[in-house]
Amino acid sequence: MTDDPMLPDVVARALGEYREALAEHGMSWGEPPIAYVRSMSPSRFVDEETFFRAASERVRAEHPDATAAEHEERVRELDFDIVLRDALAEGPAGDPPEGLAVLRLTPGGHRLDVRPRTALEPDGRTSASGQDARTPAGHGGYGGPPVPVALLIDNGRETEAEVRAGGWAYRVAPGGARLVELDSATEVTAGGERVGLCGRIRLAPRARLRVRAGFPCRWSVWSADGQGWYPDGAPPRRDYHGLPYFHGDDLVLDVPAEPLSVRVARGMEYGFAETAVTPRGETLVESAPARLYDAAAKGWYGGDLHVHLNFVGDVVAAPATAAAMQHGEDLHVLNLLAANVSGPRVFDREALEHWAGEDLPWSDATHVARMGVEYRNDLLGHLHAFGLTAPPGRYHSGFAGTPDWPPTSAACEELRGLGAIVGYAHAFHSPVETPEDVIGTGRPACTARAAVVDAALGLVDTMEVLHFSSAEGSSAVYRRLLGAGNRLAAVAGTDSMLSFTRQRMEMVASPPGWERTYARVEGPLTAASYAEAVRRGRTFATTGPFVELTVDGHGPGDTIDRAPGDRVRVRVRVIGPEVERLSIRTADGVLAEGPPGELTAELTVGAPTYVVALAEGGPHPRSLFTEVFAHTSPVYVDVRGRRVARAEDIHWCLEWLDLLERLIMDRARLDTKEQLDDHLRLIDEARRVHRARLPT
After folding, report:
1. What whole-number distance in Å separates Cα of residue 601 and Cα of residue 501?
2. Cβ–Cβ < 8 Å for 215, 249
């Protein structure tokens, strides 16, 4: 039994089961080994472009005549450990990424490639700083704890090779590769010879560093070689840029008595401050990030609607981890989602069932945390839900041989019946120009293929225009849906997974809140007031910029009614040093473009339309995304009571519905004709809704 309100018994037991699964199965926690699960471990060490370029080159070499769909399927069937080996060979020469050791087996013997690492001398030791030392194989040697390390075994021999590690024998085929999770204390032998996983260890004199801002922040401490330093018990997390980080205030950590960089940040409403220090004994660094804007002072509160506490990975995350991150990022609203991965098990279901309908224990007047749900069907799309009053009866479909049924519409209805706002998550993963781009090759891809149905039927509230993948593709489809007469709020969800300490390909190891849904709330911040603001479309999604859009003084979510020929004034103001350009768009396209700061335009009313604003830029240190991007929900401009219903967008959606119907008939796993009929009936209803909107 525990008296800790952050760790009730039912949650503690679940976390214990996750730790057992991690110890037994590694990063997969025993989930069915679909391609997504198999890619999780190797994709920590190279970026997405490099990884999949290496995979594509291997498929092209082996199957030069494969169609695009066949090529995509072949990529999913590859041995991703071999892909990692190939991807590393494409990168710059030198040591492998931090946390990875490469054991290269050659006809003449073996070679270990590993990044040099600094270790701290034990307390009281007085050897000279900078002295290179070789750590005895199989031991930490320097008196410190073992260091986690992934070992990539690269067999360049023409025969099968065996490597023994920690009592296990790993056999690797000729020309093959194998990635295994170990630590620096594991005894490894290749051909009977010991391999020291620590590689080159440089011992440094020990110092202590105290970091203090006066309020919770995100801290990064690293030495000249990029090695990160963390307080005791803090996982070695790295963000999208590869920067180490941890959260809290007035923290003490052991560090080398050598030049260090210390950075303090606090989410997107702040900049960051950086300090150079060479600690001696215990050294205090007092620093705080400067505030760029105070959204709450204007009634705007930023939330991350898509975060996972546990979703397999290399660590098990407790609720206290989420609490430290939310306060350290000054994230107003946090939605932690219970979800499955590739099998029937739903991670954090116990936490949802315990806390459903309640604020999580660390919530306060300006920080609200709730347990939510990600309903997942890989063929038709994933949904996130915020503000549930009770757990749902179903969490997924189409996994582990189950049918792609019931339709996502049923999940939307159930989740909304439980009081939640519901939105399509990580909507599209590449640029979208045509409805064919929405469907793609037709394989399960976690894209929002069924959004056109649920939007038309009024069953979904939002769409993620920002997530870990394509903002361009998702926002383009979002505007098509708006132009066809559907009313949806633009939102963001990072898909951050607190059980990952590093991930180069999907940014999921970055802290929650690196993208946010800002909602204009009436009155005090509560889960209900925030959900209502999102439901009414009073939102913008952003990687950092704060965007204010007004149309004749009205903001996102509002509707104004005008007569043909009337003129309305549009103004956009933005705060954020990373913004390079602003644009104002209507259903007919770009109305105005300009540099950052403020942009104004005049719109002469013709047909009903909508107005949205975008802020964009290239890569920037403040952005934990590939680009800078913000997108508002619309201000709707009705004309004498008629809503926007642009014929081109309606026909675009009707073609999408035709392709979706064909996809379900050809690719959906269904057990009965009645299940197929359920899908087709809803598609027909969505067609009728869209056709009824066509201008006469």
Report:
1. 45
2. yes
User: What is the average pLDDT value for the chain, to the nearest integer?
Assistant: 93
C-alpha–C-alpha distance, residues 558 and 68, integer Å = 44
Looking at this protein, which amino acid is placed at residue 124? G
DSSP state of 26: G
pLDDT of amino acid 130: 34
pTM: 0.94
Give tens-digit pLDDT for 285-313.
999 999 999 999 999 999 999 999 999 99
Per-residue buried b or exposed e for 28-54, using 16+ beta carbons within 10 Å of the residue's own CB? bbbbeebebbbbbbbbbbbebebbbbb
Q: Can you name the residues that pair with 636 across neighbouring β-strands?
A: 559, 610
Give pLDDT tens digits for 346-380.
Answer: 999 999 999 999 999 999 999 999 999 999 999 99
Q: Count of H helices and E strands in the chain?
A: 14, 39
- Burial status of residue 24 (CB atoms within 10 A of its CB: 0-12, 13-18, 19 or more): exposed
Q: Which residue has the tokens 């909304």?
A: 416
CB neighbour list of residue 122: distance below 8 Å, 6 or more residues apart: 142, 143, 144, 206
10 Å Cβ neighbour count for 611? 26
Cα of 601 vs its chain's centroid, Å: 35
Please provide residue 403's backbone torsions phi and psi, each rounded to the nearest 5 degrees: -70, 160
pLDDT above 70 coverage of the chain, percent = 96
Asked if pLDDT for residue 458 goes beyond 60, the answer is yes
SS (H, E, C) 258-311: CCEEEEEECCCCECEEEEEECCCCEEEEECCCCECCCCHHHCEEEEEEEEECCC
pLDDT at 515: 98
Q: How far apart are CA 495 and CA 374, in angstroms?
A: 10
CA distance 561 to 573: 23
**Percent of the chain surpassing pLDDT 90:** 86
Q: How many residues does the chain have?
A: 696
Q: How many CA atoms lie within 13 A of 653 on its CB side?
A: 36
CA distance 678 to 669: 13
3-state SS, one letter per residue, for 655-685? HHHHHHHHHHHHHCCCCCHHHHHHHHHHHHH
Q: Does 143 score more than 60 pLDDT?
A: no
β-strand 559-562 against 635-639: which pairing, if any?
A: parallel
Angle made by CA atoms 566, 571, 575, in degrees to the nearest 5: 170
Instruction: Write the DSSP symbol of residue 484.
Output: T
